[in-house]
Amino acid sequence: MENVHLALEEDDLYSGYNDYNPTFDSDALENDVGFQQAVRTSHGRRPPMTAKFPGTAIGARPLASSFGSRIPLTSSMGRPMTGAVQDGAARPMTAVRAAGYTSSMTRGSTFDPLGQSKGPAPPLETKNEDTPEEKIKSLEKKVNDLIEESCMAQSMGTLLLALEKAKEAGRKERALVRQRQQSGYADQINLDLTYSVLLNLANQYANNDMYPEALNSYQVIVKNKMFNNAGRLKVNMANIYFKQKNYPKAIKFYRMALDQISNAHKGMRIKILQNIGVVFIRMGQYSDAITSFEHIMSESPNVKTGFNLILCYYAISVKERMKTAFQKLISVPLGIDDEDKYIPTNDDASSNMVIEAIKNDKLHQMERDLKALAEKYIMTAAKLIAPAIENSFATGFDWCVDTLKSSQYVELANDLEINKAITYIRQKDFNQAVETLKTFEKKDSRVKSAAATNLSFLYFLEKDFDQADRYADLAMTADRYNPAALINKGSTVFVKQDYEKAAEFYKEALRNDSSCTEALYNLGLSYKKLNRLEEALDCFLKLHAILRNSAQVMYQLAHLYELLEDPQQAIEWLMQVISVIPTDPQTLAKLGELHDGEGDKSQAFHYYDESFRYFPSNIDVIEWLGAYYIETQFCENAIQYFERATHIQALETYKDIHRKFPENVECLRFLVRLCTDMGLKEVQDYATKLKKVEKMKEIRRVKSGREGSARGRREGREGSAGSTLFLGAALTLIFNCVGTTESDYEDFSKSVCLFCADSSHSGSSTRGERLSAKMRSLPASNEPYEASSPKELDASYVDPLGPQMERPKTGAKKRVEDDDFADEELGDDLLPE
């Protein structure tokens, strides 16, 4: 045990290599009888196994037994034995060399198992890039990089850059092919790389609307038999022919692609069949389209194909087939999970965490989008076929509602009934619309709020503000977070001139829906009424940031700057209005007024003249133009404008006469004639009234017989005399405005009397033959008042700006149009577009 040493924590970990097991102790070995006997025998005289390999682990070492001291012995080769000490150097007693230790290692040398003391490793040998193989690999890498850059540019919308990269990739690929051929590797051409280059180039040509070049590139791929499945690209070629409206060729290539796709690729075949059906619809061949769509609905139904099938049946007016197709549409499986899956049902924290994580993930979002798309198609189809499948649209709507109630889209039935009420509104049958909407008062809160919102809007339009206020309260009670209901409530308060309270309702609507532009617009109007112009300006500037091209918003900004006494800013905003609606006469007149206030008469005349050109019935504009011509000593031109003013005032006089005598035929005829010549939309209303009055009088004449005929003649004379009297009143007004002399008026009065007397004898066929010179100066029924510029009249004009701009919007969005951008529609949530 004296040779056994215990290692302590502070000892060197590598110490003890010179110690050895006592079993191998060679001390007093020469005194060991057994050992000496073995040495003297033939076994002991055998040469050592490593004697012929000098420098191995066998060497001189001290041999000893347990009876003597260590004696270094030498082998027969003269090499010291293992374990011997030479020149102060020692090594461990082992025949296996350990890492970091060599036979020449001395005591105190540094431990370096990794050989770091020898210095850094020599550098790697550089590849020779001049070899043909390296050149080919380099070119292939450049081509792949260019294809990738082209695709990335396309994804970012830079189509021209994508096309340039695709062309460069094509040039590099051709250089690569030449390099292979010159190097003798022609049999190693990379067909996949060539295919990728050509396909990407064709796609980029198509994206840049360079259809002939794209078709040529696709043809190169399709005609090359070395490319596998290249025939599928005929679908892309058919798509290009479809965009070019070359429908017969599109059908041909779609069918060629369909022939080259096996039945194993069912999804692709279905999509191609759907494209074929769409092309047949564009060609008007609905029967062929129906054949394609019916095959798809029998093999793999989807909502888009079902909707297209309904459109085809609607186009050929097949009622029963429309019903069948609608039933197929609502029975299409969507393959999505029920929403109840995402509602926590227990107290398990781990499962609730999983539900919370997947509630708004991309898969659930895709499911919601798919469901929304299906609901959109179903609602559109129902609204389309409802008036066509039955004798009345109400019966058709009822059938669609009953069908939806027995399907997976039960919640759409209530929305469809609301659309039924909206259809009544479009037909101006407000009583039926109100009755339909009132049936929702006992439904669930969401539907009840929507119906009450629409009822409030209807009563607001009818100026029944008490009922509008009542139903706005009902809508708010059912759903306090309904912004449309809050807007309607604010609007009813606004018309009662309680602008502070109205502003509070609009603010609450904005808190519930910060993107509600109607609430922000009406809030600006409320601040404007309260003379808080800076706050109103802030509201409309925010609204302008959302609705960049809204003429209403820009006009309100111009008006606010005018109120703030900043006419230059007002002019700039009005110029932006003109850039959006260049033909708006009221804005042009306002620009003329502002320039006139600034003393710029030339600009004022320009805008007033433009306003008159688009709407020659504005008395204020005509008055300013007439005064301008008088001021500039062009009295002849001033007379033309004042004559126009008299015509307009005559029209107003006839309107007053019609309100007092609504059944006067002659007054209605003059109104139709004047409105037609002046291009006013009221001509349709007056023409309808005229037909009704004439029909009523004709019925009276037929029924009364001879006595009735005599009475009819008397009525005709009285009506003629009355109308002549009314005409006299109107023309008296004209002469007073124009400034005729007393003799002219006497001639006119005589001609009127003569006209009245002659009409009582000769009947209506000769009434126009005895008019005076002043009477003949009126235009005929088929020509405008100024024959020199008949194209200056605008038949579709409605004054877009004026008092109605101050009326707040109800729970509805505004639709801006060229001729009337103050028209209103129901809210988005109640009347989807």
Structure description:
InterPro entries: TPR-like_helical_dom_sf (IPR011990), TPR_rpt (IPR019734). One of its GO terms (cellular component) is non-motile cilium. Keywords: TPR repeat. Residues 818-833 have a biased composition (Acidic residues). One of its GO terms (molecular function) is kinesin binding. With 833 residues, the protein is mainly α. Helix content is 62%, strand content 1%. The protein contains 32 helices and four strands. The strands form two sheets. A two-stranded antiparallel sheet has the order 1-2. Strands 3-4 form a two-stranded antiparallel sheet. Helix 19 packs parallel to helix 21 (517-529). The longest helix is centred in the C-terminal third of the chain and has 56 residues, at 683-738. The chain is elongated, with a radius of gyration of 50 Å. It starts with 32 loop residues before the first helix and ends in a 9-residue tail after the last strand. The relative contact order is 0.03.
Keyphrases for this structure?
single chain, 833 residues, mainly alpha, 4 strands, TPR_rpt, kinesin binding, TPR repeat
